[in-house]
Predict the 3D structure of the following.
Amino acid sequence: MKPSTSQLLRQGLLTLLVVSAALTAYDRLVLRPALVIGVVDVAEVYRAKEADFTQMLTKANSEDERQKALFMARTFAQRLPLALDELPRECGCLVVLKSAVAGATPNTVDLTAALRRKVTAP
């Protein structure tokens, strides 16, 4: 028994609908999130922490205050690499240095504030 023209048309439209839905889901769930690029200005975060350290060290009147400043610097040095490793996992994106990106795009997310929070959190 031969399928009628209307049956073929319905099957063709159903196939077209299923393929369109699959492509839309792929675009929204796989492709677009992969296009997101996180940028981070490590130099800015480092300079700010360096300024804090210098200020604490120059204002230190006792050995205890100097040790506190050194502890802060040591803690920062330990937290920075860990925070940089966590950023790509948290945003689900590729993270690059801000200076490596020529211009901002709609898919570019600045993660500098998140990095700053991570290295200053107690």
Remarks:
- The chain has a mean pLDDT of 88.
